[in-house]
């Protein structure tokens, strides 16, 4: 029989019998890192397998790899509210924040993380918060939550679970701001090249920028709407579970406004580029039309003199070829004068 361990009267976890007891060291499968945060906000990094799930004065943060099926099974064995467990175990791809029975749970967008840099790939960070426990999970490496880990390791104090949520969202905003700054510089460079460089390269660059703006706006818009709603509806929660949703939403509002401006600017540049390409195409068609019109009369003359019929002019004259060339040249000159008079040639 498994033994149920209480965590400060908050949430109970089922662990194997051999791991029961105050000094037991439970192994949390799929655990990436863990922290125990004291009442003063100081964080202590946990050993492999996590801290013992026993009551203490502070709170605990567990970060899980949700691609590990053992972690999903372990989540199913906890006494978290069923909707919270379902969200951690599910594969939903949209953002959401809920509160139920003194527990806040949901999923928020976070930028992906490569070995040494933040990428533009978007992933979801799933989380469950109680007054004494935070469980986060992801299916791919994420940047903001990793930045929060480094901040705790460097001595930053976080006094409550809601404070950790605030820190993660601030890290999301900072990462998007850094990407937005790079996008602004790239957009300035493309605008400078619009009239001089290869249109194929410009078209591809503007397309990538606009696609990035659309993706960032989609996730920023969803997250700030959630925060505004949570700020309005989450007033009954305990202070330790009530993040500064209003301030976070305001920061995301300004950032989203900047991303929307870049999206519109890239759209206008794309339209200008398309007009430029269309004008180049029209110029090419105009030149081709003029050449066709100038060469059509000589072609007609050539066709007439090429008919194998009796009575053709100059057929018996030794200078007939020269006269044919003169007629061809005169026909082109006449066509040019006529088109020039009617404004067909500028």
Task: Tell me what you see in this structure.
The structure is a single chain. This protein is of the alpha+beta class. Among the domains are: 158 residues, 2-Layer Sandwich (Beta Polymerase, domain 2), CATH 3.30.460; 55 residues, Methane Monooxygenase Hydroxylase, Chain G, domain 1 (Up-down Bundle). The protein is built from seven helices and nine strands, in the order βββββααββββααααα. A seven-stranded mixed sheet has the order 4-3-5-9-8-7-6, with helices on both faces. Strands 1-2 form a two-stranded antiparallel ribbon. α6 packs antiparallel against α7. The chain is rod-shaped. The N terminus is likely disordered.
> What structural category characterises the helix and strand content?
alpha+beta
Helix content: 40-55%
Mean pLDDT: 82
Q: Strand share of the residues?
A: 15-25%
Q: CATH topology of the domain at 1-158, what is it called?
A: Beta Polymerase, domain 2
User: Can you name the CATH architecture of the domain at 1-158?
Assistant: 2-Layer Sandwich
Q: Which CATH class of the domain at 1-158 applies here?
A: Alpha Beta
Q: Order of strands across the biggest sheet? A: 4-3-5-9-8-7-6
Helical stretch count?
7
Q: By CATH's scheme, which homologous superfamily of the domain at 1-158 applies?
A: CorA soluble domain-like
Q: Secondary-structure element order, as H and E?
A: EEEEEHHEEEEHHHHH
In this structure, how is the largest beta sheet organized?
7 strands, mixed
Roughly how many Å is the radius of gyration? 36 Å
Give me the count of strands: 9
- Identify low-pLDDT runs: 1-25
The rough form would be described as rod-shaped
Distance between the termini: 94 Å
